[in-house]
Design a protein that fits this description.
Number of strands of chain A: 11
Helix content of chain A: 40-55%
Number of strands of chain B: 10
Strand content of chain A: 15-25%
Radius of gyration of chain B: 17 Å
Structural class of chain B: alpha/beta
Largest sheet of chain A: 6 strands, mixed, barrel
Oligomer: heterodimer
Strand content of chain B: 25-35%
Shape of chain A: elongated
Largest interface: A-B, 24 and 29 residues
Helix content of chain B: 25-40%
Number of helices of chain B: 7
Radius of gyration of chain A: 33 Å
Shape of chain B: globular
Number of helices of chain A: 14
Order of helices and strands of chain B: EEEHEEHEHHHEHEHEE
């Protein structure tokens, strides 16, 4: 019997027992719905926490440092514990690394899955606005950071239009200290930034630190945006600083990092190089691989992707627990399938006998019953996913009303990713195939002579 | 005419609780191609058991049964179902049509098992229905047909895969005598027109003798008489 005929025959058999088919399918739907809503709750909660961090842009960046002799770089004890042997293997050899110069930058940029590489320019400076004055530091922001990380949601104003104008963005903290009034009013106002620059090489000062004479410079910068830091991990902090200026402006100021004497001395004594580079990868999950490759090149690399490993593990366990709870209803539903199919065999014993008498093989009969139960599974799976989605929506709606009343931010507690839809339907079919296998085997073994006597 | 079916010392025993029922107790017989054979006997004589063995619905307990030089005893379940599909066509006392299917679908069902494409199945089913005098009834379901008509559908179904042997188990048992004659006339016609080998199981000796070429009477699982011998 060819497959399409088997499917057609199975469909017609199911139609003959509409009510029973509908009830059994509904049972499977409820099973799948409970599984889907449980798992989507797990996924949703994970999105709400881990996912939010991932989007903050901290997790797709790796800080690359030059390894200085005598400077033990040991920021990652957690990782070594977590990964055991691997931590030791990837531990960089204790020799001075190649200089972090433009050549190194090109090399890093060539690594697979690296989106971009830019040097870190953190310039210590004084910010003045009217009576207000504070010593702080400015960070060079690449234009590509627009719409990423903390710049996804800018509190007031908007990201730099270009990197040629003297414009800056301020942190909400700093803005709050500058003015007692609404920070919003600062947009378009100018602040005075005072910083130290070497006056020997005005054209490209960031590559030359031979000249020791530094000069205090002052420039007026227009505030274009006020940015708030994402609530989340403070280590690493990504691209965020009280004062943020275009990368190009930071370069022009002279990247002399005066906050770290070692680094400064190195800049003065050796070939020109950067203090650190930031490597952005395409996707957060590429971080590990890229980090390993950077270390193979002999640099120190650091990302805080690992900080979330524990949380991710916890969520996997949560997902499993929720999945098991959700599966209980499905297990009951699968018993429903067994029951329905066994009943159906009893009712159709004579029919099975006739089919065998006129040339149906055991395999034909088995397949008819297997296809019938998988059709129930397929229909139940599809309806169940819809039901699960609906349940999630309803609970989400209610929960968000409560959360907002409590002063929290509403979010999607239930999240159904595409893979869950596919897995849900596939799981429903597999479960019903397993449930149908016993009745199908039983139908296949029906003795035609007894069956034909059966009424 | 060549022998297409050969049974020698064929036995079939059933165990009913403690006791052994000897449904067939050493039957030896040969069947020529194109023969119209009547199997007579009271109920429990073993005639239906013999028919079921020939049909490949059951396996012998002893002796051998050869159909087209193949020993039915040794066939696997799969081979038995192939035997039922290709070599024999069964007609039952209670018609055994599938009630949810139309006449056409019932006739086409064996063709479905034989993996014939749908369009060809329909065409063949309509042809067969016409040949049993049921043109115009293709879309009727069994409960919309009279007993005689249902049995005609069953005969058309038995013919679907063009088997060499038709096995009819009391095909007129549920029909009034006039309708019964119509069915037997149809079988005779198929025998004459298409040269089908037919085994007719019945308990009505008088009726059977008007149609069959040879009568075998069974009693307690043994052959007691053959006419003509």
């Amino acid at each position: 019997m060819i497959f399409s005929d088997t499917v057609q025959l199975s469909f017609r058999n199911l139609r003959e027992a509409k009510l029973r088919t509908a009830l059994t399918t509904l049972g499977v739907s409820i099973g799948i719905a409970s599984l889907i809503s449980m798992v989507s709750l797990g996924v949703g909660l994970q999105e709400q926490t881990v996912g939010r961090f991932l989007k903050s842009g901290v997790f797709d960046s790796i800080s690359v440092f030059s390894r200085l002799p005598g400077f033990e770089f040991n920021l990652r004890p957690a990782r070594r514990r977590a990964t055991g042997n691997r931590g030791n293997v990837s531990r960089p050899p204790e020799k001075p690394s190649p200089p972090l110069d433009d050549e190194a930058l090109q090399k890093l940029a060539a690594i697979r899955d690296v989106k971009e590489v830019y040097p870190t320019f953190r310039v210590p400076m004084e910010i003045k606005f009217g009576e207000f004055s504070e010593f702080s530091s400015a960070l060079g922001i690449p234009m590509s950071a627009k719409g990423e990380g903390v710049f996804q949601k800018i509190s007031y104003g908007s990201f730099f239009n270009n990197d040629t104008e003297d414009t800056c963005m301020l942190s909400l903290d700093l803005a709050g200290r500058i003015t007692d009034k609404d920070p919003k009013d600062l947009i378009g106002k100018e602040v005075t930034l005072g910083y130290a620059a070497s006056n020997s090489q005005p054209a490209a000062p960031w590559t030359q630190f031979g000249g020791i004479s530094l000069q205090r410079m002052e420039k007026r910068y227009r505030i274009v945006a006020i940015v708030d830091r994402e609530p989340g991990p403070t280590i690493g902090a990504g691209l965020f600083s009280p004062i943020m200026i275009p990368m190009r402006k930071a370069r022009e100021m002279g990247g002399a990092d005066l906050t770290n004497p070692q680094a400064f001395l190195r800049q003065l004594s050796q070939k020109p190089s950067y203090v650190s580079l930031t490597v952005k990868v395409r996707r957060p999950q590429d971080t590990d691989e890229v980090e390993k490759k950077i270390k193979e090149l002999g640099f120190n690399a650091f990302s805080i992707n690992d900080a979330l490993q524990g949380a991710k593990r916890a969520f996997i366990i949560l997902d499993i627990i929720l999945g098991v709870i959700g599966s209980i209803a499905l297990a009951v539903a699968s018993l429903g399938i067994v029951n329905t199919m066994v009943m159906s065999i009893l009712e159709r014993t004579r029919e099975i006998g006739v089919m065998k008498a006129i040339g149906g093989s055991d395999g034909d009969v088995r397949r008819i019953f297997l296809v019938e139960s998988s059709i129930i599974g397929l229909l139940g799976g599809v309806v169940g996913i819809f039901l699960g989605w609906l349940v999630g929506k309803v609970i989400n709606f209610g929960a968000n009303i409560y959360i907002e009343r409590q002063g929290g931010t509403a979010g999607q507690l239930f999240f159904i990713p595409w893979w869950l839809i596919g897995c849900g339907v596939a799981f429903a079919v597999v479960v019903s195939l397993v449930a149908g296998s016993y009745p199908a085997a039983r139908a296949a073994r029906v003795d035609p002579i007894k069956a034909l006597r059966h009424d | 005419m060549p022998i297409i079916l050969e049974a020698s010392d064929l036995k079939k025993y059933y165990t009913m609780g403690e006791s052994v029922v000897r449904a067939l107790d050493g039957v030896t017989l040969g069947l020529q191609q194109g023969e119209f054979l009547g199997l007579l006997g009271t109920s429990g004589s073993g005639k239906s058991t013999l028919l079921n063995l020939i049909a490949g619905l059951d396996r012998p307990s002893g002796g051998t049964l050869k159909v087209f030089d193949r020993t039915v005893n040794e066939m696997t379940r799969k081979e038995l179902s192939m035997h039922r599909r290709k070599n024999v066509g069964m007609i039952f006392q209670s018609f055994n049509l599938i009630s949810t299917m139309t006449a056409r679908e019932n006739v086409a069902l064996p063709l479905m098992f034989a993996e014939i494409p749908a369009a060809q199945r329909e065409q063949r089913a309509d042809q067969l229905l016409e040949s049993v005098g049921l043109s115009g009834r293709q879309l009727h379901k069994p409960n919309q047909l009279s007993g005689g008509e249902q049995q005609r559908v069953a005969i058309a179904r038995a013919m679907a895969n063009s088997p060499a042997i038709l096995l009819a188990d009391e095909p007129t048992g549920n029909l009034d005598s006039k309708t019964a004659r119509g069915i037997l006339d149809l079988l005779k016609e198929l025998h004459a027109r298409e040269g089908k080998t037919i085994v007719l199981v019945t308990h009505d000796q008088a009726l059977a003798s008007q149609y069959v070429q040879r009568n075998i009477t069974l009693l307690d699982g043994r052959i007691v008489s053959q006419v003509p011998a």
